[in-house]
Design brief:
The protein is of the alpha/beta class. It has two domains: 10-132 and 285-304, 3-Layer(aba) Sandwich (Rossmann fold); 135-279, Rossmann fold. Helices cover 38% and strands 13% of the residues. It has eleven helices and nine strands. Strands 7-6-5-8-9 form a five-stranded parallel sheet. The chain binds phosphoric acid mono(formamide)ester (CP) and norvaline. Norvaline (NVA) is lined by residues 127, 162-164, 219-220, 223-224, 259.
Length: 307
């Protein structure tokens, strides 16, 4: 029997597999635009477990599964036994006995590792405190569509070294770009993430990180679950805002990305999201296309069909 494939971090796929998923996402986007039916997951069922809020992830998975001919279930801890303390392992066994694929958005990464260990069907990471690999697929699709291959390019990360930043760090190996990071003191990457990774550079200032970059990325200064740290973080993060003036230091054709939701006036200026260099709306839409390709891949359907 073929072992179950999960997508808990980018490292669960080879660089070639990730490239194939992005190529297929671009194709699925074209088919959708042309009105061509592509029900490769007919009758398949996706369960979505959300322990944190979501707009893009929920809608893109749900719409994506419907467009592929399948159906999805939204499960919140407020209405399931997970929220009343039923062990993750028991929930994973039961859910996976009934559905074909499961997406989980949760807090500690160990929760999704546990879930996957006990699941008999593929589990997709829809965001943990550690990483958000689905978002990076959409970001790379967006870069590829607008600027060509990201391999060999320079990406600048400005702000908190949070789950998105760590996904970008992981992406250096998967996608072959160089990553320059500028984070406030105390909010940078763990040393272990820098070790043996020549594609990573720590910059002294946001300006140093952004200078000559092909892509500039940021995210909120406090993530879901860290709301109580707002007051303590704000003074330390001042100066780490991405705005058109900072973008002027990047290459003239540089793109700006943000996974959204954004806090205008904090990590991004009020005018940055609608600046001509901003790709954030395409980036958000591409969650739909990349996750459709990912689900096909994990269920070995469509162009990924195996015997
Ligand atoms: N970028 C992202 O994951 O957005 P949601 O929190 O709205 O799903
Ligand atoms: N870093 C953010 C990403 C939201 C999509 C968070 O975890 O809240």
């Amino acid at each position: 029997m073929t072992p179950v494939r999960h997508f808990l971090t980018l490292s669960d796929c080879t660089p070639a597999e990730l490239d194939a998923i992005i190529t297929r996402a671009i194709e699925l986007k074209r088919l959708l635009r042309e009105g061509v039916t592509h029900e490769t997951l007919h009758n398949r069922i996706l369960a979505m477990v959300f322990e944190k809020a979501s707009t893009r992830t929920r809608v893109s998975f749900e719409v994506g599964m419907a467009q592929l001919g399948g159906q999805s279930l939204f499960l919140s801890p407020r209405d399931t036994q997970l929220g009343r303390g039923e062990p993750v392992s028991d929930s994973a066994r039961v859910l996976s006995s009934m559905v074909d694929i499961i997406m989980v958005r949760t807090f500690e990464h160990s929760i999704i590792d546990d879930f996957a260990r006990y699941s008999s069907v593929p589990v997709i990471n829809g965001l943990t405190d550690e990483c958000h690999p689905c978002q990076l697929l959409a970001d790379v699709q967006t870069f590829v569509e607008q600027r060509g291959s990201i391999r060999g390019k320079t990406v600048a990360w400005v702000g908190d070294c949070n789950n998105m930043c760590r996904t970008y760090i992981n992406g250096t190996r998967a996608f072959g770009y160089t990553l320059k990071l500028s984070c406030p003191k105390g909010y940078g990457p763990d040393k272990s993430l820098l070790a043996n990774n020549p594609a990573m550079q720590l910059a002294d200032t946001p300006a140093d990180a952004v200078r000559d970059a092909d892509l500039v990325v940021t995210d909120v200064w406090f993530s879901m679950g860290q709301e109580s740290e707002r007051g303590q973080r704000l003074p330390l993060f001042t100066g780490f805002q991405v705005n058109p003036m900072l973008m002027n230091l990047a290459k003239p054709d540089a793109l700006f990305m943000h996974c959204l939701p954004a806090h205008r006036g904090e990590e991004v200026s009020h005018d940055m999201l609608d600046d001509p260099r901003s790709a954030v709306w395409d980036e958000a839409e591409n969650r739909l296309h990349t996750q459709k390709a990912l689900m096909e891949f994990l269920l070995a359907s469509g162009p990924f069909k195996t015997r």
